[in-house]
Amino acid sequence: MHEVKPLDGFTIGVTAARRAEELGTLLTRRGATVQHAPALRIVPLADDSELLRATEHLLADAPDTVIAATAIGFRGWIEAADGWGLGEALLARLGTVELLARGPKVRGAIRAAGLKEKWSPASESMAEVLDRLLAEGVAGRRIAVQLHGEPLPGFCEALRDSGAEVVTVPVYRWRPPQDLTPLDRLVEAVIGGGVDAVTFTSAPAAASLIDRAEQLGVREELLGALRRDVLCACVGPVTAMPLQAHDVPTTMPDRYRLGPLVQLLCHELPGRTRVLPLAGHRVEIRGHAAVVDGDLRPVPPAGMALLRALARRPGWVVPRAELLRALPGSGRDEHAVETAMARLRSSLGAPRLIQTVVKRGYRLAMDPTADSKYAG
After folding, report:
1. CA distances from 76 to 72, 118, 152, 170 (A)
2. Each residue of 72-102: pLDDT tens digit?
3. What is the pTM of this model?
4. Most CB within 10 Å of its CB: which of 140, 159, 179, 280?
5. Which of 137, 172, 207 is the endpoint of a domain?
6. Contact of 282 with 303, CB cutoff 8 Å
7. Which domain holds residue 220?
């Protein structure tokens, strides 16, 4: 027996293009099986003509304020400008304007470039940046906003509505992945119950997953699975917006970072599991495994399908025909149920957890004394 890790037995989809390896490592260290399916790719900064045009525009006509939203974006902007021969001119221009940093990472990138920010919000929130600007008054001011791969819903509009001239700086842009195969497999896994959670670290990634499902003709099936069965873990509220627009429940950490996102999953996924007292044992049913008396027991897909079907009505007899329908690709032979059941019992390591009811079917051996035993 080994210590059960928080994410043992769970499969988690990772849609990130950037820092995917870091997120995957954090999840696997805690026991998860990771299915990586980048929903996006990032257009290289030096090849982005929109960023070049925006940079030339700002050099020709200086803004009053520049808002830096992400550290990687700000660094990339400076590096891209260097590649175009405009790096020194851009740094000189940024040194003459009011420079606002969204958070400490951006502040560090600004200072590493030899510049100094005027202000940074304690909350690391663009909403606090907006509140400060509107409180100061922005009418007649020219404000450059460094985007971070996605539009900022309501941010630029609010500034324009208050009289500011807003220049957007698209530091990097998202495009669909060149190889769509992993994304297609994730869509299939979500619909087929092959993943327990999907992580999102950007709004475009969430939108891209839904768009790809629509292209495949399975959008409603995907959304139905995300609404019912699959935990959608988002790094922050902006990332969650495309999902929430389709009434998909989302969860997010208090701090918008990868570490807290992983900790959230470590809390939420075990909390969603079914724990049953069966034949004197404590059985926890996870995504592709069961934990029997604290011992992790991997279960093959057919066995998990049967276990979930039995667990929907613990203690009640489930007919063989119903169990047959639950098996993935089982055909019409009830012998497939017997074969999968034998393997399930072997995987659980305690055959008496599941009882055979002759000529009727199978049932979980619910412990009739469990309530009083656990109550005290």
Report:
1. 6, 21, 19, 11
2. 889 989 988 999 999 999 999 999 999 999 9
3. 0.76
4. 159
5. 172
6. no
7. 11-41+177-271
